[in-house]
Amino acid sequence: MRPQEAVERALELSRTDDCVVIADESSTANLRWAGNTLTTNGVTRSNRLTVIALRGTAEGVAAGVVSRAAVGAGDVEELVRAAEAVAAGNEPAEDAAPLVSGTAPGTRWDDDPAETGIGVFTGVAPALGEAFAAAEAAGRRLYGFANHMVTSTFLGTSAGLRLRHDQPTGLLELNAKDERGGSAWAGVGTRDFTDVDVPGVAADLARRLDWGARRVDLPAGRYETILPPSAVADLMIYLYWSAGAQDAHDGSTVFSAPGGGTRVGEKLASLPVRLSSDPAAPGLECAPFVIAHASSREASVFDNGLALSATDWIADGTLTALTQTRRSAERTGLPLTPGIDNLVMSGGRDGGASLEDMVARTERGLLLTCLWYIREVDPQRLLLTGLTRDGVYLVENGEVVGAVNNFRFNESPVDLLSRLTEVGATAPTLPREWSDYFTRAAMPPVRVGDFHMSTVSQAT
User: pTM for the full model?
Assistant: First the structure.
């Protein structure tokens, strides 16, 4: 059964007052390699049907959500009844709101789902082969994988809404190791792999391994540190995930104002930093409407289909918005700003310097590669801890002079904004820690005068 047919069939079978149905059809292609050799490749397909039954009561509207994979034509009715049973047993939902109605033009509702295949790697695979040969000749080993997924989402409601979105998501991660025990990592996010520069990535990793020919042991402490875009993405994405308006209004997060309310309108950054999301951001395009398979503190099934537009979360260094549902916007009195599936940070003067230029202007400091195993320590400060990984380098007089030991760090991305001394040029990047969940990001390298390396790590 085609996903559009599953949506229509579920809506026809619904016996509750209102119903929302989401059908997701996905295909995935992947390549994996280890020790300079391609090991596996394959293509998979999957589908999932989510039914949200809405039951009116004297006190409000109760919601029942059931989601299942591989639902056939004969399974739809049972799924609908299961959602209705959940709704019958639930209390009225706090996030209840009228369903979004209408149909956006040009949604291609009747077209077949988009799909990917192994052919998406036509340009990447030969380049990987050349990189393997070069690494082998130089005594290095390359490991990693490339993954491409295309998901077509069909959203229909009993209010007449019919929307469709096709989302391509791709990434390539490459790890290089040498005979000295050095390790370097790089990752690239992409929509279709036509913009992935394998030779450039491999050359950058080789350069970093060469930096590691000299080893320098440093103690824990606060160091002037340059964070590359990938590391900045990991920190800013966590900030974004923590920027729910409802939790802030309830006084439980770093964005809660003393005495009540939120910190919207407060200056957070010492430089004119902008943190924003836009469904139409070039190369980072994502769903232009809300797709909510379940309700949470930051999302609502009642908001499914709500149009999304470009949103500044931080503008000119000032907190301007937090993620909102319609009901949380009513509670907080702030504009309605739902979450969007991409994130962009900018703020460098005159467009910002490159990472290389920032290194060249450094008298003495550290250059990170990426952060790893990030965990929250204190939500009230958004204090995070984690480890450095795959290369921390010492910079002296504008040159990288060697690799240093790994550290555990303790930092709050919110506090970090107030201590930035330089913001570089924004470029698309892939977060190391969150690449399984969030790939559409563009970040600058940043300089921090006193990044906190709290302890030395024995991790290698």
Answer: 0.96
